[in-house]
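Let us practice reading a record.
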Amino acid sequence: MDQLRLDLPAGLQVEIGGALEESQEAQWKMLASFGLSFVAVIVLLICQFNSIFRTAIIIATLPLAMGGALLGLWATSNAFGFMPQLGVLALFGIVLNAAILFVEFADMMVRQRQQENGGQPISQEDLGKAIISAGRQILLPIFLTTATTVGGLVPLALAGGPLWVAMAWLLVFGLTFATVLTLFIIRVLYSFQSRKPTQLEET
């Protein structure tokens, strides 16, 4: 194409068209929609938890998913095309759901320990026990959700054809990677909410 442009007579030029042009236009539209959706998700999370800190914990899981997704594309030699980009949106939704469940269960465990403590702030040790208890309760549902999703995607990744293979591998690696790391990292992030006796309240 570079040589063709150099050989063109004066006044003529080459522009991208056809399927590639439509794909690029669709990508820009999708990015704009994603930006609006991302802002809406943040607002809804803040309204649900009434806490910027807990919202930040949940959003912090997204880079974990993205890291696994890109690793999957690299390991399987697939390009980050339009279908994988759609897969990233689906991946973000699943990972956010798991993070929301954990934060909700952790809050429940903290409130339960506060009630056992007569409504008084709980110690850092009790906070750690509440986090561990929440992790144990949420581990099986999150693991089963991930396992069934990955299991359903493997046939598509192996024999889904050029349209679906890249997106399927992205979701398989992204879900596996994010689930394993999220179950550990989100506990650590949640424990940073206080270094003194903890009273669960809006921040």
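A brief commentary: Residues 46 and 52 are 6 Å apart (CA to CA).
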